[in-house]
Amino acid sequence: MLDLEYAAPAPKVIAGAKHDWELVIGLEVHAQVATKAKLFSGASTLFGAEPNSNVAFVDAGMPGMLPVINEACVAQAVRTGLGLKAQINLMSAFDRKNYFYPDLPQGYQISQLYHPIVGEGEVLVELGDGTARLVRIERIHLEQDAGKSIHDMDPTMSFVDLNRTGVALMEIVSRPDIRGPEEAAAYVAKLRQIMRYLGTCDGNMQNGNLRADVNVSVCRPGDYEKYQATQDFGHLGTRCEIKNMNSMRFIQMAIEVEARRQIAIIEDGGSVTQETRLYDPDKNETRSMRSKEEAHDYRYFPDPDLLPLEIEQAWVDDIKASLPELPDAKKARFISDFGLSDYDASVLTADVSNAAYFEDVAKGGDGKLAANWVINELFGRLKKDGDKGIADSPIPAARLAQIVALIKAETISGKIAKDVFDIAYTQDRDPAEIVETEGMKQVTDTGAIEAAVDEIIAANPAQVEKAKANPKLAGWFVGQVMKSTGGKANPAAVNALVAAKLGL
């Protein structure tokens, strides 16, 4: 855990009409592999293309067309596995998962049931309150995505877009280690963060590039501990799968409503049926989609067109050597090297681009001051301007670093710095030039400051008496001096002089 210690969070408890119940959750996260071509063809993976324009013959299931493995997809899966501290299997194999659906032209999906490319790993999921859950990864396998059926373009017909058909997916399967809706969303967010750092998936849930199937069951308090001790799933309740969740908020809402549905059934004397369900956010309910299939229902068998996939350990080692610093390690370093709080380090490392921007600002300067300006001033302004990202920032890191350096050198005060920031942000000007041409340099001449303090004190004898009786009122004099100097006086010098002059 990189020398960061966390307590495990308490499980989510839901009060039923008769008993208390606990949640048990496992997730199957489908992450689109970040490559230019599909898993078994050279067709483009570009999002937003004209329907059915990114389709090779093999994707369309044309007779005689054979799949050819895309090495870049394999490398990205290995890279993801290494980032999740998982076992990399040097031998894996592809299977056919047989089922019929209009957007699956081959009549089967090529997947990896028996021999996945990545084995067991783990993810540390922090919850922001000093607790964290270590979630075990069972496996990651490569598989093809299906196409998309469109039902709302015509009142009598449905349409099929095969652009996604054959796009490479990594299915990341967790153990049932997650114990609450917030944990489930945090787990998906952590996976997305890690894969964005690795460059293996862009994590765009709106485009369908990251989506989750959520398995939910309930059990009585104490039963989960029996499962942990024995690994006997009989201690847990019957699970239902909620399919294709592409929103963190909806994941949480769906888990909550599905758990309450199951509790009501059990407490009413019924039994939960294992099935696949869909979540309707408008009605805030889950509804049955189909009975839950088992492996034999899909008639899995080894794909006869693809040899077992064998990779070399040296190749895996080369990929491992190229891994970037990952979020947990970067956060620990930010806390250690820059003296940041856990919260500030978490905010800055949430996105790899944000972290890189901050490091450029903090380079050779004051890390805490840089963090304050990046988080509060820059992020605040970007959010106000339409929730923009760091890539859209009109002020480069080098210029914000200049502002931090000018504050640190006491060339400008924090108050003046906000004016400099506003000009640099809106006018594309250099901070040092702004300070010089706009006459914004901080007054550090104690003689000039002392004259201003004397003038304010002489003009306000009644306020002087009040301040001597109540030293907290000395702040009024500081404010007046800052006002009279246009905010340019050194605040520390003003405070010291006011206190001395008033005998406080």
Characterization of the model:
The structure is a single chain. The chain is 39% helix and 18% strand. It contains 16 helices and 16 strands. The strands form 4 sheets. Strands 1, 2, 6, 7, 10, 11, 12, 13 and 14 form a 9-stranded mixed sheet that branches. Strands 5-4-15 form a 3-stranded antiparallel sheet, with no helix packed on it. Strands 3-16 form a two-stranded antiparallel sheet. A hairpin with a 5-residue loop joins strand 6 (121-126) and strand 7. The model has no long low-confidence stretch (mean pLDDT 92).
By DSSP (H or I, 4+ residues per run), the number of helices equals 16
Specify the overall morphology: elongated
Strand content: 15-25%
Mean pLDDT: 92
Tell me the structural class: alpha+beta
Helicity, in percent?
25-40%
- Report the end-to-end length measured between terminal Cα atoms: 50 Å
Largest sheet: 9 strands, mixed
> pLDDT below 50 for ≥5 consecutive residues: which ranges?
none
Please provide the count of β strands. Answer: 16
- Based on CA atoms alone, the radius of gyration comes out at 30 Å
